[in-house]
Design a protein that fits this description.
Layout: E1 8-12, H1 16-28, E2 32-36, H2 39-49, E3 53-57, H3 65-74, E4 83-87, H4 92-101, E5 105-108, H5 113-125
Parallel strand pairs: 1-2, 1-3, 3-4, 4-5
Amino acid sequence: MAGSESHRVLVVDDDRDSAELTALVLGGAGLQVAKVHSGQEALEAIHALSPHLVLLDINMDAMDGWETLTLLRADESTRDLPVAMFSVRFDLREKLQGIQLGATDYITKPFVNDDLIRRVHRLLEGPRG
């Protein structure tokens, strides 16, 4: 990765165990990881922390991942922020919905640690906007 600053990843997942496991795996790969547990917290954290990538769970109470993604893409300041939908559901229709709404990737849980790390690094190093 270019530069001396570690990339910042925001994990958004209402399942606290899943968020913690994801943070441990990515933190062990040298990334700075913050965790929040709702769409509203994600919107606040994104503006406060300026992450380089968001891993966004779909199934959350109050504001789900789809609504959160829609709000991120509608905001000029977050329109080009890489967002990977992060879900236990492996459904082609959902993957297509994610692409249509502007998701950068769709990662299924449970994940293989090395695969998650590889995909996150690819997203962080890829072109933006």
